[in-house]
Write a structure and sequence with these properties.
The structure holds two protein chains of two kinds. By secondary structure, chain A is α/β, with parallel strands linked by helices. Chain A is 34% helix and 24% strand. Chain A folds into three domains: 234 residues, Rossmann fold (3-Layer(aba) Sandwich); 154 residues, Rossmann fold (3-Layer(aba) Sandwich); 78 residues, no CATH class. In chain A, helix 15 runs parallel beside helix 16. The longest helix of chain A has 16 residues. The C terminus of chain A is likely disordered. In chain B, strand 1 and strand 2 form a beta hairpin. Chain B contains 14 helices and two strands; from the N terminus they run ααααααββαααααααα. The chains are: A alpha/beta, B mainly alpha. At the A-B interface, helix 10, helix 11, helix 13 and strand 18 of A face helix 8 and helix 9 of B. Chain B: Its main location: membrane. Chain B: It is a multi-pass membrane protein.
């Protein structure tokens, strides 16, 4: 096969759902030995495209060529037989099974008598893992691995079936920096061997690092397809959003000298050790560190979720003790949790119920809610934060991730909190919504509120923070001005730990 | 008022009307004033208990204990009236208090002991029935107090008393669920307990409160049961807990918690009782009644599960899509 022939070619793929044209004549050419980025904002038709490629659904029209010959990917089994493996955003591994079992799930080697050939399962799995340079035993129960390792097992499934094309949907959403590097190394190795890789990501810094070619979708159409190796991030962003968005990180300097919160020697049983820092009025204090370094645990300690076993928190100079979340909320703290779906939103409520959930006491008199005030405040916040007006009538499960995140933040605007802890506030939302969140951060700090920002996106953390506290193993190892750090410094500072063992870092 | 009478009521209301029409057309005596009056008496006990069962379900719990608790409380009431000699005016509030306390006990074990309510109330279902048998050597106690019967059979302006209890408690419940902090917290806890914790809602207290409400409403049902038969018996209330849960489910309450309308439970209870009444009037054996009740529950949950498909179908039929049919999109979102 000459490298000039595309391994897969998708020509004029069109797919419509009732009321939406999800893909409109999309063309993608995937070359062997090339990493192809598929980019676009939420709702641009990426997921639809992936479903079509992996045989989950059929296009309404268009042609699919495999090695130049037209084929029909009628179901996922056919896709598998044609050498297409898809690693979906939500893992499809079974946590209670061993790594080996997961790798061969649905495709177990059998011996002559029809029983599973365990020796082969383990040997083959071990071979695949060794080939990938992953140091995990095939007998390990998958659920006991870190999220990053589970992701690698997911990819091992694709390697084991000898896939000629691998589709990765947001593969790094749950990974820490060192795990991302490991994944990228693996992808480079696969590229060397001539595998075609379709890489879908929201993280443009990664795209820049690893992708050879790029296709950008907007409103279901291809707006830009590039075969160039050098890709300019700001061009990509403009192409995705459809307009020149100007500054990607519109940071304002609003920090003052007044200390609003002071933590001294905080410790908890969940792994926070001797954490001390101060937070100024109007400041954004970034918490940097690898996944599992204890940043979320520090947030929980501040918010009264985890009991303090040592240390002292002072608010405006006065010592406080939060026994439960409600104490912290009453004192003016707010927590936007890392996982808005599981810990943030009430999907059974419209925007109003979500916005007022933390302020029901103030909204009621003798236990009776002031529903007029609730509707009015929600109405205003929806306009103000440019949240989809559908949120007023429909339950929030109908909204996009960006709108959902704004609603969680709106909850704490409504409760008039002074100190907001934002844990991964832009994870999984598109660029336009990210910028809206950044502007919201500016607005809050301008109004004298203070923010503790936790983010795994180093560029974002560097750009939006005034100071950055580097967290390792549950403690703050140093605090520096964000302007004094570069991306590489931060990566090194948060990951470079002599005493670190991989297990510990993931704990 | 728009808030209380929302679109969630349309389905259960339609189901009730359709069932009533079918029974009315096939059964002559159904529309007799005597039968309709009897119907409201029949529905009252299960519908009042179902208020508690539904509120527990709203908070993502389940209460299997109410049937046995009815038996236990009728025996305690009978014991107090017949053998201890406590006057009725004192005995009734005591029974209500006891119902609340039993609910508190179940709620505390469930919420603070972190045992699923399915287990705690299953244990209570078995244990309360046993406790009821420890009174009077396990025999029923009859002829308790002549003043007891009017509580159930009495009439005010010609309307049976249970009708007023239904109106009072359903109005109170609908108000609480839709206009109070507690009601909102119950829906929040049922919708997403993790998020509720992080918004400062005392999840365990709210969960416990739902069981106190359930215990209290079960006590109300137990008093009506005793009044209806002027007796107490360890055999009363068998499968009543399932009928109450069925009323909630037929009324559209999601067993996953967080969604449903309390007034729809009343319609669910009516639907069930109308079917039973129709089968009774046609002299169907109780075996058939149970089979039909089972099918109704299955159908009601099925309709809830297939809501998206059904609303899509309705949308195509009537040229518009319904926005409120959302109960199962949660997982996909």
């Amino acid at each position: 096969m000459t490298p000039a022939t595309p391994l897969w070619e998708f020509v004029d793929i069109t797919k419509a759902y009732p009321g939406v044209l999800a893909n409109d004549k999309v063309c993608i050419r995937l070359m062997p030995g090339s990493i192809h980025g598929l980019l676009g904002e939420n709702g641009c038709g990426k997921s639809t495209m992936i479903k079509t490629l992996s045989g989950v659904q059929q296009p309404d029209s268009g042609q699919i060529l495999h090695n130049g010959k037209p084929v029909t990917i009628s179901d996922p089994q056919v896709a598998r037989e044609l050498g297409v493996a898809t690693v979906f955003q939500e893992f499809s591994i079974v946590p209670t099974l061993s790594v080996g079992e997961n790798i061969f799930l649905g495709n177990m080697p059998r011996s002559r008598f029809g029983v599973i050939d365990w020796a082969k399962v383990h040997n083959e799995a071990a071979r695949v893992l060794a080939e990938m340079d992953v140091d995990v035993s095939p007998e390990t129960i998958t659920g006991s691995l870190s999220v990053g390792e589970q992701q690698l097992v997911e990819i091992a499934k694709a390697v084991a079936m000898d896939a000629r094309m691998i589709i990765l949907d947001e593969p790094t959403a749950a990974l820490g920096e060192d795990e991302i590097e490991r994944l990228h190394q693996l992808l480079r190795n696969m590229r060397e061997r001539g595998t075609a890789i379709l890489y879908v990501s929201h993280r443009l810094d990664e795209v820049e690092r690893i992708v050879d070619e790029v296709t950008i979708l907007r409103n279901g159409c291809v707006v830009r397809a590039s075969g160039e190796t050098k890709i300019n991030v700001s061009e990509i962003v403009s192409a995705m959003v459809g307009e020149d968005i100007g500054e990607h990180y519109p940071k304002e300097q609003n920090a003052t000298k007044d200390v609003v919160l002071e933590a001294a020697g905080l410790s908890t049983n969940s792994g926070v050790k001797d954490v001390s820092f101060s937070l100024h009025q109007g400041e954004v204090l970034g918490l940097g560190g690898v996944l599992g370094s204890g940043r979320t645990e520090i947030a929980r300690a501040l918010f009264g979720t985890d009991e303090l076993t040592g240390g002292q928190i002072r608010l405006n100079g006065k010592p406080v003790r939060f026994r439960r979340e409600i104490d912290a909320i009453r004192a003016g703290l707010a927590l936007v949790p890392e996982n808005r779906k599981f810990d943030g939103l009430f999907f059974n409520f419209r925007a109003s119920g979500n916005v007022t959930a933390a302020s029901l006491g103030g909204l009621s008199r003798f236990g009776v809610l002031n529903l007029k005030a609730e509707e009015q405040a929600t109405h205003d916040l929806i306009r103000d934060l440019e949240i989809s007006t559908q949120a007023e009538e429909k339950t929030v499960n109908f909204l996009s991730g960006g709108n959902q995140q704004k609603i969680v933040i709106a909850r704490w605007l409504f409760s008039a909190s002074d100190i907001l802890i934002l844990d991964e506030p832009t994870q999984g939302i598109d660029i336009g919504a990210k910028i809206a969140v950044y502007k919201l951060i500016n607005r809050l700090t301008r109004a004298g509120k203070s923010i503790i920002l936790i983010s795994s996106d180093h560029d974002e953390l560097l750009a939006m923070s005034d100071r950055i506290a580097v967290v390792q193993h549950g403690t703050i190892v140093r605090t520096v001005d964000a302007s004094d750090l570069t991306h590489d410094d931060l990566v090194r500072a948060s990951a470079d730990t002599p005493q670190s063992k991989p297990k510990e870092a993931f704990a | 008022m728009k808030r209380i009478f929302d679109t969630q009521l349309i389905g259960p209301f339609a189901a009730m009307v359709i069932v009533a029409l079918i029974v009315a057309l096939t059964t002559e005596r159904f529309l007799n004033p005597g039968n309709l009056s009897n119907l409201s008496l029949q529905v009252s006990i299960v519908a009042l208990i179902a208020i508690g069962s539904t509120i527990v379900i709203f908070a993502a719990g389940i209460d299997l204990s109410s049937g046995s608790m009815v038996a236990l409380l009728t025996m305690i009431l009978a014991q107090m009236l017949k053998f201890v000699g406590i006057p009725l005016v004192l005995a009734l509030p005591l029974i209500l208090l006891m119902g609340g306390l039993l609910g508190l006990f179940i709620g505390l074990i469930t919420a603070y002991g972190r045992i699923p309510s399915f287990i705690t109330t299953l244990a209570a279902l078995i244990a309360f029935r046993g406790l009821a048998l420890t009174f009077n050597n396990g025999s029923p106690i009859f002829s308790l107090d002549p003043a007891l019967e009017p509580i159930f059979y009495g009439k005010l302006f010609g309307v049976p008393m249970p009708f007023f209890y239904l109106v009072f408690f359903y109005v109170l419940a609908a108000f609480s669920m839709n206009f109070t902090k507690l009601g909102r917290e119950i829906y929040a806890v049922g919708g997403n307990p993790a998020a509720a914790v992080l918004t400062g809602i005392n999840v365990r207290k709210v969960q416990t409160t739902t069981f106190v409400i359930a215990g209290f409403m079960t006590a109300v049902g137990a008093i009506l049961m005793s009044a209806r038969l002027n007796s107490g018996s360890p055999n009363y209330g068998q499968t009543l807990e399932l009928q109450a849960i069925a009323a909630a489910v037929v009324g559209g309450a999601s067993l996953a918690g967080g969604r449903g309308n309390i007034l729809a439970t009343l319609m669910g209870a009516m639907t069930i009782v109308i079917v039973q009444n129709g089968l009774n009037l046609n002299a169907a054996p109780s075996s058939v009644q149970n089979i039909v009740l089972g099918l109704i529950i299955l159908l009601a949950v099925g309709i809830d599960m297939w809501r998206a498909e059904i609303s899509g179908l309705m949308g195509r039929m009537f040229g518009r899509t319904s926005s409120q049919q959302s109960s199962n999109v949660k997982k996909e979102a």
